[in-house]
């Protein structure tokens, strides 16, 4: 990174800190910042849970295939129908 890029990043960081400081001075600003931090934590927890759901869906799909294969294997094959016999002509 060049010094010019570092300078831009430093300026943005300073402005962000200034903006956060101003927000805390507003009535209800501190409450708002706490709410945003809580929201971030809840979104992080939700995203972790959703990644877990993907893994569970894969496991369920695999188990469904296994059950279907077991059902196909356990079905009795239909017995051969006896061939119709002709009655003797009288």
- Tell me, what's the shape? rod-shaped
What do the pLDDT scores average to? 81
- The counted number of beta strands is 0
Largest beta-sheet characterization: none
Distance between the termini: 109 Å
Low-confidence stretches: none
Count of alpha/pi helices: 2
* Helix/strand order, N-terminal first: HH
Please report which band the strand proportion falls in: under 5%, 5-15%, 15-25%, 25-35%, 35-45% or over 45%: under 5%
Total individual domains? 1
Radius of gyration, in Å, reads 35 Å
Assign a percent range to the helix content: over 70%
Structural class: mainly alpha
Description:
This protein has 90 residues and is mainly alpha-helical. It has one domain (8-74). 77% of the residues lie in helices and 0% in strands. The chain is built from two helices and no strands.
Topology at a glance:
Blueprint: H1 3-25, H2 29-74
Descriptive keywords:
90 residues
In a few lines, what is going on in this structure?
This protein has about 90 residues and is mostly helical. The protein has helices at about 5-25, 30-75.
């Amino acid at each position: 990174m060049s010094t010019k890029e570092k300078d831009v990043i430093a300026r943005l960081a300073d402005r962000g800190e200034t903006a956060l400081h101003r927000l805390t001075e507003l009535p209800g600003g501190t409450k708002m910042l706490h709410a945003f931090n809580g929201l971030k934590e809840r979104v992080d927890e939700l995203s972790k849970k959703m990644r877990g759901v993907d893994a569970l869906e894969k496991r369920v799909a695999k188990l469904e295939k296994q059950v279907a294969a077991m059902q196909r294997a356990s079905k009795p094959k239909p017995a051969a129908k006896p061939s119709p016999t002709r009655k003797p002509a009288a």
